[in-house]
Known about the structure:
The protein has helices at residues 2-36, 41-44, 50-70, 78-88, 95-110, 118-135, 143-159, 162-174, 178-196, 215-252, 258-276, 285-292, 300-319, 327-348, 355-370, 374-385, 388-406, 411-419. The chain has 422 residues and is an all-alpha fold.
Amino acid sequence: MANVLTLIIFSFVVGSVTGIFIVIYGLSIELLKHLLFFGDPIETIKHLPIWYIYLVPTVAIFIVNYLIKLDENVREYGVLEIAKAVEENKFIGTWKSIFFKIIASSISLASGFAVADEGPSVAIGAMIANKFHSIFKLPNNLLNISLSIGASSGLSAIFVSPITGITFAIENIACVFIKDFLSYIIFASIISFSIAVNFLEPISFKYVAGKFSESKYIISGILFIPFIAFFNFLYLTLKDKFFNFFNNFFKSHFLIHKNWILSIIGGFTIGTILLISPYGAFSGHKLVIMLINNNLHIPILLLFLIICLRMIAMSVSIYVNAVGGMFVTLMSLGALIGYEYAEIINYFTVFEIAPFYFAAIGSAIFVGVNMKLPLTAIVMALEITYDYNVIVPTGIAYILVSFLMNLKFNIKKMHFRHFKIR
């Protein structure tokens, strides 16, 4: 009973402290973004000098690469690191590395690079849990439990979504011992979410048909499968081409100055994308919220352009060492693809379907397929929408699109390889 009570108190403390730290981290990114661009960049970029738009991401990625030079652990593959630590029941992270990672990720996200914040959030939660594991003098054989509790707390807080955060942690980190210790992961995640929801903006869906499935969404959902499969193929091909190009280029040229050259390439690319359309850059968190809640209307041709820009921004951001995860950026790309599909269907057919429904479906499918997270994709669709018109086509499309992509790509290997680029 004492051990159970200790774990309950430990979960509450870790969830509370992680929630506070994640709120500070999330708000700091928004504050820095507004400072760098003198307000909301979507509104202010068009009024800023062109040289300044190029300067911000270039200087930012130079700083990030300098931090990586000081400490290699700053490089972003946080979820994979924590999963490995849980598997091996040991944790080698340091407060210095976490501090540098938070600085590097904040700069990356605020300056326009298309990365997300779940990786650093996992690292923050795991580091806090590791510290309290020592303070509570828990047995060494429970370290993997502690790290899982911390990691899921970080995810639930930054997603502002407890069920999706818990599921993500289970599929990535805690599946080995889930039956015995799930209750503590849930408890800590709910606590961290309860703190974060008061300060950070959740991704939620306002238009719900609930349990009333409509035939037009079933038919259009089936037709959506080859559409999103094509764009998924395009995205994975682009990622692979970028990886091979950079690897081959630096094997024969400028290997010593690689990170600095990458910084120039990254700054120029993101600066150009910001000038063309700010929607093509940044994490895409607000973009997803606007699309799935019908607060933003983008013409079909401009949508296609933004989709292409985001694909380039996401691929380049990884290779120039921008620090951050890919969960929300993949959501944003899927949301754009789904929204475009619905606009095309409405324009060329007799169907009248709501674009924001397919924005929700596309976001879940893109995350699920590209991060190999089937359960998280379904749970995310459920938690965001509570709508069968979204959940059913998401499940069907995930299976078929995932099957098609795996005929050509080893997605899990690509995901790990890209974050380990040197």
